[in-house]
Write a structure and sequence with these properties.
two-stranded antiparallel ribbon, 0% helix, three-stranded antiparallel beta sheet
Amino acid sequence: IKYDVKGAVYGLNDFVATTASTSTDYCSNQNTLIEYSCIFNYYQSQETHTCPNGCSDGVCNVQPDDVIRTQ
């Protein structure tokens, strides 16, 4: 699972499903990522992850590099 990479999975939504579908990672709000992965090679799994630097377009924002200031 990579929270800074938007991905999609194709598989069954649950153990009783008979039709596969595609689910894509998305932000449920400005700080929460819904991340999909596969389990047992057939089934979709969904995880909620809090992004410390915010969430946009299905990925957690990366922490900006420290800025070195010179005078």
